[in-house]
Write a sequence for this structure.
């Protein structure tokens, strides 16, 4: 297997203003399942198409936004290796004991120059529901709601994205799949640790640690249409879409969870190989890059974050 | 239905009509679509519509309303007591008068993600 080191975004911990309403939304509308609730009240959710214990953690708080994103690495030894590399780079590393989140092994954590907390972990229990592995049906339990297949990626807003880019490439072995360069400098970066068009992305923003969106992958464009019907039927706050990105080519809708955290559901996107060149966008065509059909940014895209 | 339909006056602009179970911001968006809010001092700010992003801050200068939970990153308890709130999180209980307020984060904003807040460890 050629894919080693950082494998994928494993889970993200979101702050929500109302826990029962949020669990209801992420399970019934996005289509996730609740695995368990922790003693401190955090809720742990997953898609039935994911093996690992959970991919979405909800924490009740007075402010919306994101606490952390955690990436899964292939093996235990990777944690020690990445800890050395992060420390050598000049960023302090802390340790989170196994079991701090149910089903998740020990984690290392650090704050990147955009102000976001990143964690790495190697071990996760599996939990039900999960895909069959012997003579497998295409699903183990019937998909419901928007039928999200996985937590796919997140887009964060914060300062110092040149430094963020340098860190992800030099220390975590990510590759830069796409970038937007404006006359006043680098505006946005899309980074991959595997073969997706992105596993995490950043947009330059003065305030650190902000969340633009967490994204769930759907099976196809038809599923994106189904999600749009659900968004209207249940009066979920819409941002934009269904539309398409020039960047990554994903077919997409943006909308907001009950706390105002932006969600995306999307399908498609190209396959990225590590020898592919970086795709670049400039001021003249950035509108198509962000929203390929509208060909311009909407009012909220650069300003509304939690 | 008429009994629960209230005018919402926007300072310097015009009036929308809101309904008891409807977020004031949604009423304002509809009114803007019908051209009932001319000459807004600033463009109607619409963000997440769920109390998280803080862009739709308004000061209610008259009338009664009820409110959903909203992010304390943008409206403090004191702000809220003084009528400064988010249009997306309030529902009219009477005719309302309000003024659009530019979005600003509350002063003394602390780091969201300090470790003790993350639970356990």
């Amino acid at each position: 297997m050629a894919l080693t080191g950082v494998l994928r975004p494993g889970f993200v911990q979101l702050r929500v203003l109302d826990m029962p309403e949020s669990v209801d939304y992420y399970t019934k509308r996005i289509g996730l399942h609740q695995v368990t609730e922790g003693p401190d009240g955090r809720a742990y959710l997953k898609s039935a198409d994911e093996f690992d214990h959970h991919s979405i953690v909800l924490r009740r708080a007075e402010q919306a936004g994101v606490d952390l994103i955690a990436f899964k690495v292939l093996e235990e030894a990777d944690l020690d290796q990445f800890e050395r590399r992060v420390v050598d780079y000049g960023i302090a590393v802390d340790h989170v004991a196994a079991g701090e989140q149910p089903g998740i092994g020990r984690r290392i954590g650090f704050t990147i120059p955009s102000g976001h907390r990143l964690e790495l972990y190697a071990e996760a229990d599996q939990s039900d529901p999960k895909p069959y592995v012997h003579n497998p049906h295409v699903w183990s339990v019937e998909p419901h709601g928007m039928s999200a297949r996985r937590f796919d990626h997140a887009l964060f807003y914060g300062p110092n994205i040149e430094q963020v880019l340098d860190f992800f490439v030099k220390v975590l072995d990510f590759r830069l799949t796409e970038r937007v360069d404006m006359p006043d400098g680098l505006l946005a970066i899309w980074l991959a640790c595997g073969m997706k068009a992105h596993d995490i992305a950043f947009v330059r923003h003065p305030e650190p640690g902000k969340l633009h969106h967490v994204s769930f992958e759907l099976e196809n464009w038809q599923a994106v249409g189904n999600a749009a019907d659900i968004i209207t039927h249940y009066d979920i706050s819409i941002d934009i879409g269904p539309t398409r990105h020039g960047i990554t080519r994903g077919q997409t809708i943006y909308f907001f969870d009950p706390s105002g955290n932006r969600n995306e559901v999307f399908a498609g996107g190209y396959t990225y190989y590590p020898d592919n060149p970086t795709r670049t966008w400039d001021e003249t065509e950035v509108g198509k890059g962000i929203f390929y059909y509208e060909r311009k940014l909407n009012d909220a895209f650069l300003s509304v974050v939690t | 239905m008429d009994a629960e339909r209230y005018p919402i006056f926007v300072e310097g602009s015009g009036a929308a009509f809101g309904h008891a179970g409807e977020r004031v911001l949604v009423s304002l968006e509809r009114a803007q679509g019908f051209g009932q809010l001319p000459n807004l001092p600033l463009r109607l700010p619409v963000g997440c519509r769920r109390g998280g992003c803080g862009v739709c801050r308004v000061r209610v200068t008259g009338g009664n309303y009820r409110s959903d939970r909203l992010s304390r990153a943008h409206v403090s308890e004191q702000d809220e007591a003084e009528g400064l709130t988010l249009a997306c999180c309030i529902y009219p209980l009477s005719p309302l008068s309000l003024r659009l307020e530019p979005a600003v984060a509350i002063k003394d904003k602390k780091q969201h993600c300090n470790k003790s807040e993350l639970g356990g460890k």
Notes: The helical segments of chain B are 24-33, 77-81.
